[in-house]
Write a structure and sequence with these properties.
Cytochrome Bc1 Complex, Chain D, domain 2; 387 residues; binds heme C; 2 strands
Length: 387
């Protein structure tokens, strides 16, 4: 009896509180955000971003290169063993990742396979930024002994044995694929990059709310669930997430040490330290002969890159778009559930999250999922005529 009464009064109280918050929301939603928070919300869009070609890749945006990349992405002949392709790990019906904690090709890798999306929004690629272009990040798996274990000659051989693919390559690049094996593997990476640039996530409930908030459209705002609004307020406010998960892609593209390295799931991984070191030494970085941008503007970042010990244990901030469908989480896949992947943020700003805050953040994060979710669009038809 007592418990029941108590329950009822709590309900009444909750109802009153909800009424108050709702009233404020209807009067002027933007008043619930401080000006600084409101400008953070604004900076999480607009979405989708305007398309810009990658100046370091001369076939970026070329429809025939996109089509060549689409074919190569799922082609198991890319690996000398003949059964591993990019789609082995980046699967279209699993948000272009693989639902595994760590990737497995010919052997285990120590890292989680990132969902491939919105890649034009990044500046460095891989968890450790060991690539400074999307095409270099696409060449890397061809050479890695744990992935394809290929080499320039094994890639050239695919074109030698497939005249139609070779003709498509020649149409895209204006040279024969057998002329210079090193150039051929880089161009293959560039076609793959052109294809992957088309993998952009769609608009979400959050994007509709953000736009409605900015134009003060109360009826459009009402469609956004109250817990998600509270989560967004935490995200751009006291929980401090927006310090790193910022910009339209909810990633600053930079490297931070936010996890306890002692809890690493698959042994030592020094993150950005090793990544920066490998990038500096890589002849295919943007300082090398394969950068198609004559101005070399994009090469300044790698030119100025100084490998310092404080880069140890840093990993690139992941985008949070579609994060609700890309488990497991973190560079070593240490968390299976999204709710367990939130604590690093609060500790970065010196707070802890209570259960209610956690639920609200979760409610916000799932509104970042687009209409396709985990099952990404994948055309089985050619995207363009090639050759
Ligand atoms: C064995 C599984 C596996 C295969 C096969 C594979 N990848 Fe990956 N991919 C990964 C893993 C793991 C990472 C993270 C690498 C790192 O941080 O060092 C990654 C990272 C990437 C990235 C960087 C993404 C980002 O957000 O920075 C790109 C781009 C990429 N892969 C494209 C490809 C392409 C193109 C192919 C085929 C040529 C391919 N991958 C084949 C597992 C795989
Ligand atoms: C200091 C920068 C920083 C702050 C602040 C921060 N994050 Fe992160 N976040 C990262 C980095 C870096 C990673 C990847 C860490 C790793 O794998 O080593 C990450 C990973 C994540 C992931 C896992 C994503 C995936 O695909 O694996 C989620 C979810 C996430 N953050 C949400 C949040 C939320 C919510 C907040 C606020 C409570 C927050 N983050 C605050 C930098 C930050």
């Amino acid at each position: 009896m007592e418990a029941c009464l108590l329950g009822r009064s709590v309900l009444v109280l909750l109802g009153l509180l909800a009424g108050t918050v709702h009233g404020v929301a209807q009067a002027d939603e933007s008043a619930a955000f401080t000006p600084a928070q409101l400008s953070h919300v604004r900076s999480l869009g607009p979405w989708p971003p305007a398309w810009t070609a990658d100046p370091t890749n001369r076939v970026s945006g070329d429809p025939r290169a996109v089509e060549l990349g689409r074919r190569l992405f799922r082609d198991p002949r890319m690996s000398p063993v003949g059964y591993i392709a990019c789609v082995t790990c980046h699967q279209p019906d699993r948000a272009f990742t693989d639902r595994r904690a760590r990737a497995h090709g010919l052997a285990d890798l120590p890292r989680n396979t990132p969902a491939l999306a919105n890649l034009r929004q990044q500046r460095w690629y891989g968890w450790d930024g060991a690539s400074d272009s999307l095409w270099l990040a696409s060449v890397r798996p061809m050479l890695d002994p744990r992935e394809f274990d290929g080499n320039p000659t094994s890639i050239t051989r695919i074109y030698e044995r497939d005249p139609e693919l070779a003709a498509c390559y020649a149409a895209v690049f204006g040279t024969e694929p057998v002329r210079d094996a090193q150039e051929t593997i880089v161009n293959t990476g560039k076609a793959l990059a052109a294809f992957q640039e088309t993998m952009v996530t769609g608009r979400t409930a959050f994007d509709r709310y953000r736009d409605a908030l900015l134009r003060n459209d109360a009826s459009a705002m009402a469609a956004y669930p109250a817990p998600a609004r509270r989560g967004l307020r935490l995200f751009v406010g006291p929980a401090g997430c927006v310090a790193c998960h910022r910009g339209p892609n909810l990633s600053d593209g930079q490297f931070h040490a936010v996890l306890d390295p002692a809890a690493a799931r698959f042994g030592d991984d020094d993150g950005r330290l090793g990544g920066a070191d490998r990038l500096r030494a890589n002849p295919m970085n943007l300082l090398g002969r394969f950068n198609d941008d004559a101005t070399r503007a994009n090469a300044q970042a790698v030119e100025r890159l100084v490998v310092r010990d404080d880069m140890r244990d840093r990993f690139r901030t992941p985008s949070l778009r579609n994060v609700g469908v890309t488990a497991p989480y973190m560079h070593d896949g240490r968390h299976d559930r999204l709710v367990d992947a939130l604590d690093h943020g609060a500790s970065a700003v010196g707070t802890t999250l209570g259960a209610a805050a956690r639920d609200d953040l979760l409610a916000f994060l799932v509104t970042l999922t687009d209409e396709h979710g985990e099952r990404r669009p994948w055309s089985t038809e050619p995207l363009a005529r090639c050759p």
